[in-house]
Amino acid sequence: MTAETTAIGVDWGTSSFRAFRFAADGEMLEGRRAQAGILAIDAGEFEDAFEELIGDWLDAAPDVPVVLSGMIGSRQGWLETPYLPCPAAVDDIAGALVPLTLARGRVIRLAPGLSVRADDGIPDVMRGEEVQILGAVDLIGSATATVCLPGTHSKWARVESRRVTSFSTHMTGEVFDVLRRHSILGRGIEHAAWDEEAFLEGVTRSGAEGGLLHHLFGVRAAGLFGDLAPEGAGAFLSGLVIGHEIRAAAPVDTVYLVGEEELVRLYREALRVLGHQGEAVAAHAAACGLFLIADSLGRGGGR
Predict the structure, then answer these.
(1) Which of 222, 259, 225, 262 is nearest to 240 (CA)?
(2) 278, β-bridge pairs
(3) For residue 272, which of 17, 47, 54, 164 sits 20 to 30 Å off, Cα-Cα?
(4) Could you please report the per-residue DSSP string of 226-290?
């Protein structure tokens, strides 16, 4: 007998759309993915895209909660939702969901994202990652953890008593891409090559005196003197910026990593070189987090 759908969750980001339908116990009954991120959809056409992608699910399960997270709730998305200040748990997010009524009359709900202010008063924000973080904590079965989501804008979050209490964002992936494609450093990089040893050397170099800006020009100088071959320069640069990120985050316990498999592997290696422990979390952390929020909503969580 086919299990009944009790909730639908959607992780709708900048570049991709991922949807999941769940059974009552949280089992993912079906998942769909499309290259239909918010940047690929014209303003005013989000509802049409949504109906095209999972309209049949809405037809088949007319009364179950539907929760959307990610950049779909940003200023460039379907409906801008306010950020929820940390600390925040699953029930807090469920209580802050913003309703949106479709033309068919169905009400769906968008997650708010999280915000935090550092000790110096500078704000930081995330949209969508909070769902992955809380899903990851549930998957590892720990109420307290340090979670890292490596990527274009890497997130480092501290979770205590199943609440995101603080986090910081590092533009590591974007800076790496800009440097290798649009700076003088790119002239000395063989972009199709990868050298694992050079990557680890870059991680180690991040701890030397001089700081990141000095270290970056060192990539250029090392290439000029033949100390760094073009085949290894890109990997060295990657290790350098990831090493600086990890040192800035200064983890004190095991770091749980959520993200694309190869990137998680690189972060685990970088953490190892710097004397830290890194552990990969199952790739379905976002799905788990969406179910937790939908389940909380169904139980009246946050009210």
Answers:
(1) 222
(2) 255
(3) 164
(4) TSS-HHHHHHHHHHHHHHHHHHHH---SPEEE-S-HHHHHHHHHHHHHTT--EEE--TTHHHHHH
CA–CA distance, 170 with 241 (Å, rounded to integer)? 10
Q: Which two tokens stand for residue 224?
A: 């000029």
What's the token pair of residue 23? 């059974």
The answer to whether position 61 is within a domain reads yes
Provide the percentage of residues in the chain whose pLDDT is more than 70.
98
Residue 25 lies in a domain: yes
pLDDT for 148 equals 98
For the record, the structure tokens of 97 come out as: 């969901």
Question: What are the pLDDT digits (tens) for 112-126?
Answer: 999 999 889 999 999
301 pLDDT higher than 60: no
Count: domains in the chain: 1
132, 93 contact by CB (below 8 A): no
Q: Which domain holds residue 79?
A: 7-139
Q: Using an 8 Å Cβ cutoff, are 297 and 109 in contact?
A: yes
- Please return the burial class of 61, using the count of CB atoms within 10 Å of its CB with bins 0-12, 13-18 and 19+: middle
152 part of a folded domain: no
Q: pLDDT for 192-247, tens place per residue?
A: 999 999 999 999 999 999 999 999 999 999 999 999 999 999 999 999 999 999 99
Does this model's pTM top 0.85? yes
**pLDDT band at 302; cut points 50, 70, 90:** very low
Residues 6+ apart with CB under 8 A from 301: 90, 91, 94, 95, 295
Strands (E) in 49-188, as ranges, are 66-69, 84-85, 98-101, 107-110, 114-117, 123-126, 145-149, 154-160, 163-170
**Measured distance CA(246)–CA(219) in Å, rounded:** 19
> Is 300 within the bounds of a domain?
no
Query: The domain spanning residue 75 has which CATH number?
Result: 3.30.420.300
Whether the bond between 150 and the residue before it is cis, its omega within 30 degrees of 0, is no
